[in-house]
Amino acid sequence: PPERKRFYQNVSISQGEGGFEINLDHRKLKTPQAKLFTVPSEALAIAVATEWDSQKDTIKFYTMHLTTLCNTALDNPTQRNKMQLIRAAVKFLETDTVCYRVEEPAALAELQKNEWDPVVAWAEKRYNVAIGSSTSILGPNIPASTKETFVSHLASYNMWALQGIEYVITQLKSLILSMGLIDKHITVEKAVLLSRLEEEYQIQRWGSVEWAHDYDLCELCARTAAGTLFVHLCSESSTVKHKLLQD
């Protein structure tokens, strides 16, 4: 959406029947489909309220990743159920960034091996699966049992968290990196760097377009961090003390 002039002074949260609500002055926030904006955890409500409170003279919706994710979870514009979300996430294994390798140039092939092999090995051990990699344009042949293991693992998350997981996967183009990030095996910065390994290699070799590279990198980090935070806040069962809002 285009930027909009800020029309409110104060942002607060309140607990309603369906969860925690966001108040802009005395107005309750609504979704694009005019549903009451209600989130499942107080921590997530505080994070969303902070996004709205940090807007200055104009509301820059494109900077409000948590709000966008909540809107998606509430409105479910694609009308997908839990299993459809899970299957869409697992399908990324077939084209996972860290599974596609090059043979030439040798320096890039070596870089991929050194940087990507450890995270693939971690995932294979963590989930007790076979993943592997391939230099074929068709990609690696992922066993059906591996896919089903990830289906079972993702089924342990609720619908809200799954929306966040899919969002992170689409940013990194990798289920493996996303799970490493959500499982706190790697940091956001590391996950983003690994997802952009070939691009970073080319930049080191040929240089970058001024400002554009840094902007893209910062945007990707922001979206990935927001998606990861969203997953954890949607999986959080405990509430945060109200005093944190004042702090």
Automatic annotation (TrEMBL):
Membrane topology listed for this record: Peripheral membrane protein
Primary location class: mitochondrion
Name assigned to this protein: ATP synthase mitochondrial F1 complex assembly factor 2
Entry's family note: Belongs to the ATP12 family.
Name of the gene encoding the protein in the UniProt record: Atpaf2
Pfam families, alphabetized: ATP12
Superkingdom in the source lineage: Eukaryota
Role description: Plays a role in the assembly of the F1 component of the mitochondrial ATP synthase (ATPase).
Subunit structure: Interacts with ATP5F1B; involved in the assembly of the F1 component of the mitochondrial ATP synthase (ATPase). Interacts with FMC1.
Keyword line: Chaperone, Membrane, Mitochondrion, Mitochondrion inner membrane, Transit peptide
An annotated GO cellular component: mitochondrial inner membrane
Compartments (UniProt record): Mitochondrion inner membrane
Alphabetical GO biological process terms: mitochondrial proton-transporting ATP synthase complex assembly
